[in-house]
Write a structure and sequence with these properties.
Strands 1-5-4-3-2-6-8-7 form an 8-stranded mixed beta sheet, sandwiched between helices. The chain has helices at residues 4-10, 24-27, 35-51, 122-135, 154-160, 174-186, 209-217, and strands at 19-22, 64-70, 73-77, 92-99, 104-109, 144-148, 194-197, 201-206. The protein is built from 7 helices and 8 strands, in the order H-E-H-H-E-E-E-E-H-E-H-H-E-E-H.
C-alpha cells in the first residue's frame, strides 16, 4: 500500500515543504573546509543506493539522503538526486539555520551548482544533528546522518528491534520532524543509533562516516528496495 508521501509525489506535489532562502554568506562557503564531509557523504550515498536502502520514489528520484555537521551548520545532499550518479560537490548544500516556527531554512550551495536546494529531509537532519543534542542534553553529539526509505514498517521495527514512531505523516513537514524528535528523546543517542519513522524510513546517527556506514551494513540483508549501482 502506498505511503502518504508516495501518493503525494505521484500526484506531482512538491518534495520540499519548507521555505528555502538562499544566503549570500552561505553561498560563499569554503568548499575546502567541508571537502572531507562531502567525500564521505558521497561515498555513503553510493552505498545507500547499491544496497537498495534508497529506493526510487514515484517522482523518479532516489528516496535517501545524507548529512553532517560542518562549521557553517550542517551540510546535506541536495533534493532530488537522480539514480545511478555518484554525487559531486555541486550535489550538496550548506544549511546555516532552520526556523522551526516559520518552517524555513537559510542555505548556500556550491559555486559549481546553479540549481541545488537542500534535501526535503533537511528538517530531520537539523533536528537530529543540531536540535536534539542541545534540547535533550546529549553528552556525545552525532556528526553524521544517513537516511533511507527501505525500513519503514512496524513489522520491520519489531523484527529488528529498532525504535519506531507510531504516526505516519507527509515528509518534510513539522509533524514529521516532531514525531522524530519524540523518538530521539525517548531513545537517545548514542545508546541508540538507528530509528524508524513509520512510513518514512530509517535514520542513522554516528560519530563518523565509518560509524554510520557500519550501522547501515548491519541491516543490509533487510533492504528490499531495488539496488541501482552508481557510476
Amino acid at each position: 500500500m502506498p505511503s502518504t508521501e508516495e501518493i503525494s509525489l505521484a500526484a506531482g506535489e512538491a518534495r520540499i515543504k519548507f521555505e528555502c532562502r538562499r544566503s549570500p554568506k552561505l553561498d560563499s562557503f569554503d568548499e575546502e573546509t567541508v571537502s572531507t564531509q562531502i567525500s564521505g557523504l558521497s561515498a555513503a550515498l553510493v552505498v545507500l543506493e547499491e544496497l537498495g536502502a534508497a529506493p526510487i520514489a514515484p517522482d523518479g528520484k532516489l528516496a535517501g539522503n545524507a548529512g553532517a555537521v560542518c562549521p557553517q551548520g550542517i551540510i546535506v545532499s541536495r533534493s532530488g538526486k537522480p539514480p545511478g550518479v555518484v554525487p559531486a560537490a555541486s550535489d550538496f548544500c550548506v544549511v546555516g539555520s532552520f526556523d522551526s516556527e516559520k518552517w524555513s531554512c537559510e542555505y548556500g550551495r556550491s559555486s559549481a551548482s546553479d540549481c541545488a536546494q537542500p534535501t526535503s529531509d533537511a528538517p530531520l537532519h537539523w533536528a537530529s544533528l543540531v536540535r536534539a543534542p542541545k534540547e535533550f542534553g546529549w553528552e556525545r553529539k552525532p556528526q553524521y546522518l544517513l537516511h533511507g526509505h527501505a525500513l519503514e514498517t512496524e513489522y520491520e521495527a519489531q523484527q529488528l528491534k529498532i525504535p519506531i514512531s507510531t504516526q505516519e505523516t507527509l515528509f518534510s513537514t513539522k509533524e514529521d520532524t516532531d514525531a522524530l524528535m519524540q523518538l530521539l528523546q525517548e531513545f537517545p543517542y548514542p545508546a541508540n543509533k538507528i530509528w524508524i519513522r513509520k512510513g518514512h524510513g530509517f535514520v542513522i546517527l554516528g560519530s563518523s562516516i565509518d560509524d554510520v556506514t557500519a550501522t547501515l551494513g548491519c541491516y543490509k540483508t533487510h533492504f528490499s528496495g531495488c539496488a541501482h549501482p552508481a557510476k
